[in-house]
Amino acid sequence: MGCNSSKSANEAVAAPTAAPKGTKEITLYVNGLSPFARTTMMVAQTTVGVNVKYVEVDLLKGEQNEEWYLKLNPKHTVPVLVDGDKVLTESVDISKYLIDNYGKCKDANPTGEKAEQVEAIVKYVYGTLASIVPKIVLPILIHGKPEDVTDEDFEAAKIHGYEYFNNQLGDKEFLTGDKPTWADFLVFSLLMQMDIHPKTDKGQHDKLKQWAKRIHALPFFPTVHKTFLALKNQMSKAHNPTPMLYVNIASPLARAVLCTADELGIEYETTHLDFMKREHKSEEYLKVNENGTIPGLKHGDKCIGQSRDIARYLVEKFSPASSLFAIDNQEEINELLKFDEEKCFQAAIKIVGPLLGGKEIPDENREFVKSVKLEAQEKLGEKQFFGGDKVCIADFFIFNNLIQTVIDPKHDHENPAEDLAVLRQYVQRMMAIEHVAKKVGEFKETMAKVAQMMKEKREAEAAEKSEEEEL
C-alpha cells in the first residue's frame, strides 16, 4: 500500500499528489488527534491495491469550518473519505468500506456471529464510551488542566473503558477472537485518548494491557499514532514528574534498573544513597521503599521498592511495545528474572558479603558461584542474549549480578575458565552496549574505593589495637 501525506489541506485539494501509474488513489482527510480518524488510518494501513493519500485537517486552525471542507462534509468533522465520486463522512462507514473494497484481510470486518460482536462493540462505544472520554481529554487538550477532570468522570472512564473491555477480552487475544478487527482499532484509539491524563493507570487490567501491547506491536502503529504520541509525550512532561530512581552504582540491582531506563531512552533523575551512611534506612527513603533496599522508584504518587518490578513498570509505562519485556516472551522473561533472583543475586551476595565484612570468601561460596554461571550458560544456549536476538530486562539483571562476582580477589581475569567460554562471549556482547559498559566501569571504580577505605579502616583498627596492647 502506498501512502502520501500533506500538511496543508488547502494545498492538497488544489494540487493532489499523483498516484503511482496503474494504482488507484483515494483520499482520507484526517487529524492525528481524533481517535475516529486514527481508526480509519489504521484500517487504511491494511489495504492493498490502492494508494491512500492522507490530508491532515488542522482543527485548531479551524480548517474543518472552511468552505472547501464544508463542501466535502457539512458536519465539519474528521475523518472524510473521497473515492472518486464517493464521499463518506462517518468513521464506521469508512472503515467498513475500506476493508470490503480494498482490505487485504476481510476478517477485519467479519461476517456472521463475529459481525454481530463487532456491531455490539461499536454500539457500546458510540452509545457509552464516546460521551465519557471527551470529559477526560478536552480539559487537558484545550486548557491544559487535568485537575479540571472530576473524580466522578475519571472513575466512570475507567469503569466503562478499562474495566469493561478488560472483561470483554476474556481469554481472547483481540476483542472478537485471535485476529484484530476494525472494532479493536476503534476501541484502542478511543482508550488511548485517556493516556494523556497524568493519573491514567490500567492497574490490574492485565488482559487489557496485553491486548494494548498487541496493538502497539502492529507495524503501522508508530506511523498512525505519531501525532497523538507526540502530544502525549508533551503532556506527560508538563504534568508528569520525571521518574526518580534511588540508586547506588555498587548495587547490581540498581545498575540493572538504570540499564533498563537508559535502553528505553527515557528521562529520569537519580538520588544516590550512601550505604555507609545508611541513607537507605532514612525515614524519608522508607516512605519510598518500606524495605529500605536499593533501588527504589518514585514517579508521581507511584512508589516501587522491588527492582524487577521497577524494570517492568518502566517498560510498561514508557514503551509497552519494547522488546525489553516483549509480550510474546513475558513468561520466559519472568522465569529468567526468577532464576536471577534465586540464583544470580545469591551468587553476588556470596562474594560481596564476606568481602564487605572483612572476611575470606569460603570455597563453597565460589563453588556455588561457578554452578550458577554454568546454569546461566546452559539457559543462554546458542542465543545472543537471554531474551533471544535482542536484550531483555532479564539480561540486565543476570549480567549485573554475575559481574558483581568478579571482585573476588581469586577471580582469574587472565586465565578464564574454558568451560565458561559461551558465557564469556555473552559478557563481551553486553559490554559492547555503551551505557552498560559505562556502569560496569563506574561500579569497578566504586568498589576499588570501597576496598581501599576498608583496608585503611582495618589497618587503623589494627594499629589502635597494637597501641592498646603496648599500654
From TrEMBL:
<feature type="coiled-coil region">
    <location>
        <begin position="443"/>
        <end position="470"/>
    </location>
</feature>
<feature type="domain" description="GST N-terminal">
    <location>
        <begin position="24"/>
        <end position="106"/>
    </location>
</feature>
<feature type="domain" description="GST N-terminal">
    <location>
        <begin position="241"/>
        <end position="322"/>
    </location>
</feature>
<dbReference type="InterPro" id="IPR004045">
    <property type="entry name" value="Glutathione_S-Trfase_N"/>
</dbReference>
<feature type="domain" description="GST C-terminal">
    <location>
        <begin position="111"/>
        <end position="244"/>
    </location>
</feature>
<dbReference type="InterPro" id="IPR036249">
    <property type="entry name" value="Thioredoxin-like_sf"/>
</dbReference>
<keyword id="KW-0175">Coiled coil</keyword>
<protein>
    <recommendedName>
        <fullName>Glutathione transferase</fullName>
    </recommendedName>
</protein>
<dbReference type="InterPro" id="IPR040079">
    <property type="entry name" value="Glutathione_S-Trfase"/>
</dbReference>
<dbReference type="Pfam" id="PF00043">
    <property type="entry name" value="GST_C"/>
</dbReference>
<dbReference type="InterPro" id="IPR036282">
    <property type="entry name" value="Glutathione-S-Trfase_C_sf"/>
</dbReference>
<dbReference type="InterPro" id="IPR004046">
    <property type="entry name" value="GST_C"/>
</dbReference>
<dbReference type="InterPro" id="IPR010987">
    <property type="entry name" value="Glutathione-S-Trfase_C-like"/>
</dbReference>
<dbReference type="GO" id="GO:0004364">
    <property type="term" value="F:glutathione transferase activity"/>
</dbReference>
<comment type="subunit">
    <text>Homodimer.</text>
</comment>
<dbReference type="GO" id="GO:0006749">
    <property type="term" value="P:glutathione metabolic process"/>
</dbReference>
<dbReference type="Pfam" id="PF02798">
    <property type="entry name" value="GST_N"/>
</dbReference>
